[in-house]
Amino acid sequence: MALMPVEEALALLLSTVQPLAGETVPLEQAAGRALAAPVVARRTTPGADVSAMDGYALRATDAATVPATLELIGESAAGRPFPGRVEPGTTVRIFTGAVLPEGADAIVIQEDTSRDGDAVTMTEAATPGRHIRRAGGDFTAGETLLEAGRRLRARDLALIAAADVDAVSVARRPRVGLISTGDELVRPGAGANAHQVIVSNIYSVAALARAAGAEVIDLGILPDRMDATQAGVRAALDSGFDVLVTTGGASVGDHDLIAPALSAEGVDLAVHRIALRPGKPLMFGRSAAARTQVLGLPGNPVSAHVCALLFLVPLIKALQGLAVPAQPELEPARLATDVKANEQRMDFMRAEIVGRAEGLPLVRPMPVQDSSMLRNLARADVLLVRRPHAPSASAGDMCEILRLED
């Protein structure tokens, strides 16, 4: 069976994805959520012409030449506008954010004035429109401020609030069920024996999924028995998860039971072997009956993390209606050391950023790339990407990197 290129596998995975329905949430709960509908301003901001500085509002013609002394007739503060009109020869004390009084068309900042009682002398000539924020200068009522398919950031929330919008329509968080398999697996803190393995990949995979916007439920560890594996898969599919993620048992050994269990429960497996290192034994498919996307990750913790970054994170984003590139988003960098020629699989090597060269990150791959070694994964800043059949490269050569999202 030929290995499928990473880009082709990602495109196939995303080809059946439909964004989840939206739900309305209060603005204080919207951070990090994906907009399911545009945000439209309910008010104009600023709502009137306002001052950008502390100073004096006046008619520019009254201080076209200086010094010019005008009569102070009142004050305009933020939230307390001056009720009258600026007539020839008069001025109004004004503060930042205050409404420009009727009749005024300029502001002279307080540093360019002197005051003696109600007489204010302008020492800097006035310019029409100077230091004035015009009504609607930021946005106007009815204007679309943010489009659907945008993940809301802190500064987006400020914009939405200023537009007098207190609730937004966002995509429902994808529900992800996570199954681990293997007789050798035990939980951290359970007192593992030498022949046992402490399960670790579920924690990194769950963290990546949550960071991408999902709700994650850990469905536990299944033993290497067909009846138990199939029962666990059936229960997960019956629970209505949007995505079912399995870790381990994705290869073709005697104890790798995930593929036959998924097939027995009606999951159409589209892919099983990817031209990828680490992570060749990866599979995905869809349960039409349960409307669940299924992703089978390798058991090796590094492989599981890399595959989750490459496939699970885009899947979760696509379910929220977020734009997902058709291939991993790679950045240019330069090599700090020589690297060997690559074979047929796309290689994602753990690497550190050790400096900069000609404005680009300078990266050094870890000396050991074994897919079970977690210390190197934790130390890595990026993944150094080696294309299939890439020739050897020397220190200083251009290369490509993928940021580790977390």
Automatic annotation (TrEMBL):
GO terms for biological process: Mo-molybdopterin cofactor biosynthetic process. Its EC number is 2.10.1.1. The keyword Amino-acid biosynthesis does not apply. Pathway: Cofactor biosynthesis; molybdopterin biosynthesis. Keywords: Magnesium, Metal-binding, Molybdenum, Molybdenum cofactor biosynthesis, Transferase. Residues 177-318 form the MoaB/Mog domain. It comes from the Bacteria. One of its GO terms (cellular component) is cytosol. One of its GO terms (molecular function) is molybdopterin molybdotransferase activity. It is an enzyme of class 2 (transferase). The keyword Metal-binding applies. SUPFAM superfamilies: MoeA C-terminal domain-like (SSF63867), MoeA N-terminal region -like (SSF63882), Molybdenum cofactor biosynthesis proteins (SSF53218). It catalyses: adenylyl-molybdopterin + molybdate = Mo-molybdopterin + AMP + H(+). Its cofactor is Mg(2+). PROSITE patterns: MOCF_BIOSYNTHESIS_2. Catalyzes the insertion of molybdate into adenylated molybdopterin with the concomitant release of AMP. Belongs to the MoeA family. This is Molybdopterin molybdenumtransferase. It comes from Ancylobacter dichloromethanicus.
